[in-house]
Amino acid sequence: MAIFSTLTPVFLAVLCILIAIIFKNFKKSEKKPKTDSKPPVPSRPWVDEDLEDDTEINPGEDDEELAESEGDVSHVPFSLPRYSEAEMLHRSQEFYALMNGRRSVRFISPEPVPRDIIENVIRAAGTAPSGAHTEPWTFVVVADAQTKSEIRRIVEEEEEINYKLRMGEKWVTDLKRLRTNWVKEYLDTAPYLILIFKQTYGMHPSGKKRTHYYNEISVSISCGILLAALQNAGLVTVTTTPLNCGPQLRQLLQRPLNEKLLMLLPVGFPSEDATVPQLSRKPLDDIMVFV
User: Fold this and answer.
1) Rounded to whole angstroms, how far apart are CA atoms 37 and 26?
2) Whole-prediction pTM
3) What is the pLDDT of residues 155-201, one digit of tens each?
4) CA 21, 22, 26 angle in degrees (round to 5)?
5) Crossing angle, helix 215-232 and helix 115-125, to 10 degrees?
6) Which domain holds residue 214?
7) Does residue 40 lie in a domain region?
8) In angstroms, rounded to a whole number, what is the distance separating the alpha carbons of residues 100 and 113?
9) Distance of alpha carbon 44 from its chain centroid, rounded?
10) CATH code of 252's domain
11) Burial class (CB in 10 A: 0-12, 13-18, 19+), 184
């Protein structure tokens, strides 16, 4: 007992020193900045990962996986019909009048449309410019009734989740005035569905990847030409970008992994009872800046 009583003050002193050292080290570690920590990523549940913009070259791409650039392309003479100023003005006014009549129509007739017309409007879309002339687009035309019904099922299931959970109150409120919701009857009734896929990269005959520069911009331009061609042919559509449906639709249509869904267009004639929102377009002064 005497020995224990003698050692107790020493033991307490040592214990206090150890506690002081531990506390000091803890404070130091607290002050050190966490160099490996990443800033928090803002939550954006409405973003479709399948539509993320990947149009630039990936600097991390393994050069061994990429095909070599193709050889030089020969150039040929080019000419364009030259119209008088009066004819140019007339043609530009006619085209504007044609396109100004374009509307997004959600009431589409099941009346058949000749396949040749669909092939021609897609040929027109395929004339769009593209980065390094890679033409990174695939147009999947669906006429089969069972496949259209399956597409509708996939889209409506995801769209209901979008409206209720992903899109947020403001987006849903902004759409109310257009009387649109997750029910997409036109996916069944339209004689054709055109699904436009962007090819994020191509495949060379050697099996190596071929870079598709600015693939999303290129395919978007192609979609614009397609809309104009449909209007010119007297057909209607509504541009739809089914959020988070891309992977399921790609699998359903047996498309390769390098293709990602950009847009879905139901195509046909307007139904007899079709209506559209009474909207106006911005005047020229609001959309053009002349320098």
Assistant:
1) 19
2) 0.77
3) 988 877 766 666 667 766 667 666 777 678 999 999 999 999 999 99
4) 115
5) 140
6) 107-271
7) no
8) 23
9) 15
10) 3.40.109.10
11) buried
